[in-house]
C-alpha cells in the first residue's frame, strides 16, 4: 500500500527537488564568482535546507544526536556508514558550521545542477574508483586542506551505499590517508539509521514516513591513537549504533 500511495507523492517531491537544484545553480555560481567562498558555502547550506524540507513532503523527519560532542576549532574527519544520498543532504545542513567536504566518485562531478558544481568548486574531491592510484593524491590534498583551514572531511568507508541498512566491511585506505596528513584532526564516528528506507523501492517511488537518525559518537584524537586503534574503535561505534528494524 505504501508503494502505491508513494507514486503521486514521489512525483511532486522530485519536481520540487529538481527545481531546487536548478534554481540554486546560478545562485551558487554568482555567490562564488562575485562574493567568494563563504557566500558560495552559505548558498549550498541553504540549498540543502530546502532539500530537507522537500523530503518532508514524503513524511521524512530527522534527528541529529550528540552534536555537542563535536570539538570546535580543530580539523575534523567525519566517518559514517552510508545508506542513501539523503545522508549527505542532512550532514551538509546539520554539520554546516564545520564546512563538510566529501570524498565522492568522479561521476558525480558532472551533469547534476548545483551538486556537481559544488563538488568541483566547494573543496570536495572526486576520485576514480577504478584507479586507486589517482585517489591517493586527491585524498591527501583534502587532508592538507582541512588541516590548513580547520574544516572537515566526510568519508564513507563502506565505499558504496547499503541497500538494506546492513553495514558493509569498512575499507581503511581513505581514512588512513586523511589521518596521516591531518595529524591534528579528530575522527568523529557517526551512525546513520533509516536512510536506506527512503530508497527501499529504488529511485522511484520513494519510501514514506521515515525517521532518519544521525548519532554522533565520542571523537577520537588522531595524534593520541594509532591508526589501527582509530579504525577499530570507529567501526565498532558506528556499527553498534546501527538499528536494523
Secondary-structure blueprint of this entry?
Elements: H1 2-35, H2 37-55, E1 61-65, E2 76-80, H3 86-94, E3 100-105, H4 115-121, E4 125-127, H5 132-149, E5 152-155, H6 173-181, E6 186-193, E7 211-216, E8 220-221, H7 227-240
Parallel strand pairs: 1-7, 2-5, 2-6, 3-4, 3-5
Antiparallel strand pairs: 6-7, 6-8
Helix pairs in contact: 1-2, 2-3, 5-6
Q: What gap, in angstroms, lies between the N and C termini? A: 19 Å
Rounded mean pLDDT is 93
**Unreliable runs:** none
Q: Estimate what percentage of residues fall within beta strands.
A: 15-25%
| DSSP, total strands | 8
Helix content: 40-55%
SSE-based structural type: alpha/beta
Major sheet characteristics: 8 strands, mixed
Backbone shape: globular
Q: How many helix segments?
A: 7
SSE order: HHEEHEHEHEHEEEH
Radius of gyration: 18 Å
Report on the structure:
With 245 residues, the chain is an alpha/beta fold. It is built from 7 helices and 8 strands; from the N terminus they run H-H-E-E-H-E-H-E-H-E-H-E-E-E-H. The chain has helices spanning 2-35, 37-55, 86-94, 115-121, 132-149, 173-181, 227-240; strands at 61-65, 76-80, 100-105, 125-127, 152-155, 186-193, 211-216, 220-221. Strands 1, 2, 3, 4, 5, 6, 7 and 8 form an 8-stranded mixed β-sheet that branches. Helix 1 packs antiparallel against helix 2 and helix 2 crosses helix 3. The model has no long low-confidence stretch (mean pLDDT 93).
Based on the model shown, name its key terms.
single chain, 245 residues, alpha/beta, eight-stranded mixed sheet, 45% helix, 16% strand
Amino acid at each position: 500500500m505504501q508503494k502505491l500511495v508513494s507514486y503521486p507523492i514521489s512525483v511532486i517531491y522530485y519536481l520540487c527537488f529538481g527545481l531546487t537544484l536548478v534554481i540554486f545553480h546560478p545562485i551558487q555560481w554568482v555567490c562564488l564568482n562575485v562574493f567568494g567562498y563563504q557566500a558560495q558555502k552559505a548558498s549550498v547550506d541553504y540549498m540543502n535546507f530546502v532539500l530537507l524540507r522537500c523530503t518532508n513532503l514524503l513524511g521524512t523527519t530527522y534527528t541529529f544526536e550528540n552534536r555537542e560532542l563535536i570539538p570546535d576549532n580543530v580539523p575534523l574527519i567525519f566517518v559514517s556508514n552510508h545508506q542513501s544520498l539523503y545522508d549527505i543532504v542532512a550532514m551538509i545542513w546539520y554539520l554546516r558550521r564545520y564546512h563538510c567536504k566529501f570524498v565522492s566518485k568522479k561521476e558525480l562531478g558532472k551533469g547534476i545542477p548545483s551538486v556537481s558544481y559544488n563538488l568541483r568548486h566547494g573543496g570536495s574531491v572526486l576520485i576514480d574508483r577504478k584507479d586507486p592510484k589517482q585517489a591517493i593524491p586527491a585524498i591527501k590534498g583534502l587532508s592538507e586542506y582541512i588541516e590548513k583551514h580547520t574544516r572537515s572531511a566526510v568519508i564513507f568507508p563502506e565505499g558504496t551505499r547499503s541497500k538494506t541498512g546492513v553495514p558493509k566491511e569498512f575499507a581503511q585506505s581513505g581514512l588512513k590517508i586523511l589521518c596521516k596528513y591531518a595529524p591534528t584532526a579528530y575522527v568523529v564516528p557517526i551512525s546513520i539509521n533509516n536512510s536506506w528506507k527512503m530508497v527501499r523501492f529504488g529511485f522511484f517511488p520513494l519510501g514514506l514516513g521515515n525517521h532518519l537518525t544521525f548519532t554522533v559518537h565520542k571523537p577520537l584524537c588522531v595524534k593520541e591513537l594509532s591508526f589501527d586503534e582509530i579504525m577499530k574503535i570507529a567501526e565498532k561505534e558506528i556499527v553498534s549504533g546501527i538499528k536494523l528494524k
